[in-house]
Design a protein that fits this description.
The protein has about 130 residues and is mainly β. It contains one helix and eight strands. It is about 10% helix and about 40% strand. Bound molecules: zinc ion.
Length: about 130
């Protein structure tokens, strides 16, 4: 039985599986079927790559005016993280005081609850980063 696309994507996010282009070497996350740089030349050459989850903070913003679902945890930090494999992700930085976040700080991906739909609804999990 084929695994629904939705669950495949969830598995990819949980395991930080990206793709590496066999033509130019660019790493992407989430995974792609065609390299954005090489286009057709990359077809059939995309390789799965498990990201280390490690990277550095490139830029960050402390958000004081949080949306309702983040009500319990404001202020919080959103940062652009450059993964060691070269991919850049925007994510929340957790387990740190906003004033202690610095550019160049080493961080490590971790999986946390992202939000919930309704009182007893579907709970969403995803990656966030914490100091390494
Ligand atoms: Zn490429």
């Amino acid at each position: 039985m084929a695994i629904p696309r939705f669950w495949r994507e969830i598995a990819s996010r949980y395991n930080l599986i990206g793709t590496k282009c066999g033509s130019c070497g660019i790493v992407d996350f989430p995974p792609r079927t065609v390299c954005p740089s090489c286009g057709r030349r990359s077809i059939g050459k995309m390789q799965k790559l498990r990201l280390s989850g490690k990277g550095v903070v490139v830029t960050y913003t402390v958000i004081h005016d949080a949306p309702a679902q983040f009500e319990m945890q404001k202020p919080y930090v959103m940062a652009m993280v450059a993964m060691d494999e070269g991919v850049r992700l925007t994510s929340q930085i957790i387990d740190v005081n906003p004033g202690d976040v610095t550019i160049g700080m080493r961080v490590q991906a971790t999986f946390r609850k992202l939000g919930q739909e309704g009182e007893a609804g579907v709970i969403h999990y995803g990656y966030k980063f914490r100091p390494a």
